[in-house]
From TrEMBL:
Keywords: Membrane, Transmembrane, Transmembrane helix. Coiled coil: none annotated. GO terms for cellular component: plasma membrane. Pfam families: DUF423 (PF04241). Belongs to the UPF0382 family. It is found in: Membrane. This is DUF423 domain-containing protein. It is a multi-pass membrane protein. The keyword Transmembrane applies.
């Protein structure tokens, strides 16, 4: 289980760096400064949660059940949140925005829920 969580964290971290470089170089000429800032927000949150998954995989005091729940919430959250931000920052057509736009807050809510599960797990833990 920990190996899988660590692998997902490493994958998210690697792709965040690749996408960050892509945004800083290739997209700099294509996107407006505002669009680029939105794209970078997706990269930042992806990287934060890559590190969060790596952290969770290494903490022995968090149960395997909690780790599994957190990793699913965060992984799906990153895909929906950052993925939708990447697409929306490209200035997609209005009809695509109507479909993709609602995924951003859903993804954000899933990531927040992952942090809530960690907080509850810590507070329930007996010293």
């Amino acid at each position: 289980m920990d190996k899988n969580i660590m692998a997902v964290g490493a994958f998210f971290g690697m792709t965040a760096i690749i996408l960050g470089a892509f945004g800083a170089h290739a997209l700099k000429e294509i996107l407006s400064p505002e669009q680029l800032q939105v794209f970078e927000t997706g990269v930042k949150y992806q990287m934060y949660h890559a590190l969060f998954l790596l952290f969770i995989s290494l903490v022995p005091s968090v149960s395997d059940k909690s780790k599994k729940t957190i990793s699913w919430l965060v992984s799906i959250g990153v895909l929906l949140f950052s993925g939708s931000i990447y697409i929306l920052s490209m200035g997609v057509a209005e009809n695509v925005k109507k479909v993709i736009g609602p995924l951003t807050p859903i993804g954000g809510s899933l990531m927040i829920t992952g942090w809530i599960v960690l907080l509850i797990t810590i507070l329930k833990k007996k010293s």
